[in-house]
Amino acid sequence: MRTDSRLSRMLHVLIHMDRHDGPLTSETIAQMLRTHAVVVRRMLAGLRDQGYVRSEKGHGGGWVLAEDLDKLTLLDVYRAVGEPPLFSELLTDDDPQCLVEQAVNAGLSKAMQEAETALLARFGELTVGALARDFDERFARVKQGEQGG
Questions:
Q1: What is the DSSP letter of 60?
Q2: What is the per-residue pLDDT across 1-33, written as a single tens digit (0 to 9) for each?
Q3: Burial of 78 by CB count in 10 Å (0-12 exposed, 13-18 middle, 19+ buried)?
């Protein structure tokens, strides 16, 4: 099963948008994500519909932030990108009549639901701005190392 990376990709894009001077085109974002511009527009549509980004048309246009990253939580972005699965499929349906499979699936389902509830609560506490500041700190350390070495 392929991993769904919409959430991490959009968080990546939002931080780039915030740190970029001016709009970013779908093509530029697509190159950054190693995908196609149509995929980028589709992913950004949910963020646009929620008012987190907007697109500016015409020469020099592109995508820009419409919301401060400190007001935008990971939960907001998660919901805007369509609430992709948080976990890979752990359950099986090889033999639905098997009582062992039923017990295993019931235990795993309960544990995954509890984990999802906790994870979504954490997403609601963490802002994209906090991630951006973490990036800034990492970038500063790399720059410091380049200057010192």
A1: T
A2: 456 789 999 999 999 999 999 999 999 999 999
A3: buried
Of the candidate CATH numbers 1.10.10.60, 1.10.10.10, 2.60.40.10, 1.10.1740.110, the domain formed by 6-148 belongs to 1.10.10.10
Residue 134 DSSP SS3: helix
Q: Encoding tokens for residue 5?
A: 């990376």
Sequence spans of domains, the chain? 6-148
| Distance separating alpha carbons of residues 117 and 138, to the nearest angstrom | 30
pLDDT digits (tens, 9 = 90+) for 66-94: 999 999 999 999 999 999 988 877 888 88
d(CA 76, CA 148): 40
Q: Can you say how many angstroms the Cα of residue 51 is from the centroid of all Cα atoms in its chain? A: 16
